[in-house]
Amino acid sequence: MVVKVHLAGYEEFSKFFDKFEASGKLVHVYFTGSKLPSGESWCPDCVKAWPIVEKQISQLPEDSHFITVEVGDRETWKDPNCGFRKDARTKLLVVPTLIRWNKPQRLNGEQLEKPELVEMIFNDDD
């Protein structure tokens, strides 16, 4: 079974990844806008991308990790000093973004609306 983790905000993200040992594990991190009371993200691109990403999660190997990180509300995300923008581990410019942790594979924004690209990042070997 894929290990799923949900993190909310930069502080929670930092605490988790400061302790997380990713060595030898297949880890994907999905950055998205935080959810509104309706349950959907404030980010329209994130709303479009999520069903495509979610469908592919089940194709990941059983011992892999899928980590969802909510970057905050729109105001927090748009702040040029947002921690996710400044952190060398993430270098986020766009949400949604899907990365393979500690690897070069990355999909940003509208790329995540293409099932074949999402499938490729999940299945492509290093």
From TrEMBL:
Q: Does the keyword Disulfide bond apply?
A: yes
Family matches, as InterPro entries: Thioredoxin-like_sf, TXNDC17-like, TXNDC17_dom
Q: Which domain of life is it from?
A: Eukaryota
The primary location reported for this protein is cytoplasm
Q: Which CDD domains match?
A: TRP14_like
What UniProt keywords are attached to this protein's entry?
Answer: Cytoplasm, Disulfide bond, Redox-active center
What GO CC terms are in its UniProt record? cytosol
Which subcellular locations apply to this protein? Cytoplasm
Q: Name one GO molecular function term.
A: protein-disulfide reductase [NAD(P)H] activity
Domain (Thioredoxin) spans 8-124
| UniProt cross-references to SUPFAM superfamilies, sorted A to Z | Thioredoxin-like
- Asked if the record carries the keyword Disulfide bond, the reply is yes
Transmembrane intervals: none
Instruction: Please state which protein family the record places this protein in.
Output: Belongs to the thioredoxin family.
What the entry lists under PANTHER family is as follows: 42-9-9 PROTEIN-RELATED, THIOREDOXIN DOMAIN-CONTAINING PROTEIN 17
| Protein name, entry field | Thioredoxin domain-containing protein 17
Native source organism of the sequence:
Sitophilus oryzae
